[in-house]
Design brief:
This protein is α/β, with parallel strands linked by helices and about 220 residues long. Helix content is about 30%, strand content about 20%. Strand 6, helix 6 and strand 7 form a beta-alpha-beta unit. Helix 3 packs across helix 4. The longest helix is centred in the middle third of the chain and has 20 residues. The radius of gyration is 19 Å and the shape is elongated. About 35% of the residues are buried.
Amino acid sequence: MKGKFFAVGVGPGDPELLTIKAVKLIEESDIIAVPDSGATDNIAVRITGKYLEGKEVVNCPMPMTKDKAVLDKYHRESAATLAKYLDEGKQVAFLTLGDPTIYSTVMYVHRKLTEMGYETGIVSGIPSFCAVAAALNTSLCEREEMLHIIPATFRADMVDELEGTKVLMKSGKTIMSVKEQLADRKAMMVECATMENQKIYKDLKDLQEQSSYFSVIVIPADRQE
């Protein structure tokens, strides 16, 4: 009997924000797979550290590149590697930051394994933008307001085109140019939400230096009290 593959969200960074279901899945799984971008610090491993003792951890290379052909190659290789464990009847949990369904690399592997005929599942995690809203001590949307989640390919004109609250994900590399584009938009930002090095900017204008990859900007809706 073949094993089952799970994409497991481990939340934004604080180990206390791991869900009970995620912990249970990690403890039950035979193999723990983690994305390896080449960084010296694997945050997913840091979050789940105490639950990985005695577990076989498999690093799946996931380079930070936008080259779709290169990425597809690594996704196929990771799926093939994990398929061998599934063929042995082992349960595999692939850890990913935040929630697997939101801009997560793990879903490419999940999709390939599903297409290969393996049983797959998803365990939700707390998304980074929800943790960011909590750090800012504010709501993301109220009443009939819309909420838009926008990737780092942000265009300035989106601010005017879209109604409601806008959340800009993974804005680190372009943050200084984005800051200029969002002048007078009441934009706020949190860097490394819930982590030990968390930084909160209630006004994006206060940002004076380049921020990390884990930077999320919130442009609040215009609210009439």
